[in-house]
C-alpha cells in the first residue's frame, strides 16, 4: 500500500482510496498528511525512495533546514534498521500542525544506544548521535517487550505546517 504525500490518499493496486479526514481543532476536516513504506531486509536502495517520499511530504510545508535534517535522520534510521536486522522495516512519517514525526519499526528487540565512535570506526556509529543532536525529540518504543516483535525508533521535528508553507517565519 502506498500513500500519496500530496493527496493523503491510499493507493491499492493502482486505484486511489480516499482516507477519512481527521478533525481539526475547530471541528472541521483536516487532510491527513502521512506516508508509509515497507522496506525489505538488506534493500539499501530503498533508503533513497523513502527519503524522496519524505521530501515530497515536506515540500512546500516545511522550512528548508527542517526538511534537510529530516532527510538526514530518516536515512540514518532506515539504514540502521536494514544493516542491524535481517527482516526489513516499516517506515511512517506524519505531519500534524507544526510537527513532523517519523517512525521506523524493525523486528529486532534489542534497543539501540547512541555512542560516540572512535576515529578508527570510519563512518559507522554516528546515526543515533545525529538523531539525538538534531531532533527536537526522539525515542525508542518496544513493541510488546519480550515478544521479539521489535521496536520503533522515532524522532520529531518542528518547523512544518500541515498546510502549504508560505516561506514566512515558522
Overall description:
With 170 residues, the protein is an alpha+beta fold. It contains three helices and ten strands. The strands form three sheets. It has a five-stranded antiparallel beta sheet with strand order 6-7-8-10-9, covered by helices on one side. Strands 1-2-3 form a three-stranded antiparallel beta sheet, with no helix packed on it. A hairpin with an 8-residue loop joins strand 9 (137-142) and strand 10 (151-158). Helix 2 (64-84) packs antiparallel against helix 3. The longest helix has 21 residues, at 64-84. The relative contact order is 0.17.
End-to-end C-alpha gap: 32 Å
Helix share, percent: 10-25%
Instruction: Record the strand order, biggest sheet.
Output: 6-7-8-10-9
Q: Uncertain segments of ≥5 residues (pLDDT<50)?
A: 1-30
Q: What would you report as the Rg, rounded to the nearest angstrom?
A: 17 Å
Strand content: 25-35%
Number of helices: 3
Report the count of strand segments: 10
Structural class: alpha+beta
Q: Report the major sheet.
A: 5 strands, antiparallel
Question: Which oligomerization state do the chains in this entry correspond to?
Answer: single chain
Q: Any idea what the shape is?
A: globular
Mean pLDDT: 79
Which H/E pattern describes the elements? EEEEEEHHEEHEE
Amino acid at each position: 500500500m502506498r500513500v500519496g504525500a500530496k493527496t493523503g490518499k491510499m493507493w491499492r493496486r493502482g486505484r486511489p482510496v480516499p482516507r477519512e479526514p481527521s478533525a481539526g481543532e475547530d471541528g472541521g476536516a483536516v487532510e491527513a498528511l502521512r506516508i508509509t513504506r515497507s522496506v525489505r531486509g538488506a534493500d539499501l536502495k530503498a533508503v533513497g525512495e523513502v527519503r524522496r517520499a519524505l521530501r515530497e511530504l515536506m515540500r512546500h510545508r516545511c522550512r528548508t533546514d527542517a526538511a534537510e535534517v529530516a532527510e538526514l535522520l530518516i536515512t540514518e534510521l532506515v539504514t540502521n534498521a536494514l544493516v542491524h536486522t535481517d527482516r526489513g522495516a516499516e517506515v511512517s512519517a506524519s505531519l500534524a500542525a507544526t510537527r513532523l514525526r517519523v517512525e521506523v519499526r524493525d523486528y529486532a528487540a534489542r534497543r539501540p544506544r547512541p555512542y560516540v565512535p572512535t576515529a578508527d570506526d570510519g563512518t559507522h556509529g554516528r546515526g543515533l548521535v545525529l538523531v539525538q543532536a538534531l531532533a527536537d525529540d526522539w525515542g525508542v518504543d518496544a513493541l510488546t517487550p519480550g515478544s521479539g516483535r521489535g521496536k520503533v525508533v522515532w524522532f520529531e521535528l518542528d518547523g512544518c505546517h500541515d498546510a502549504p508553507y508560505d516561506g514566512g517565519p515558522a
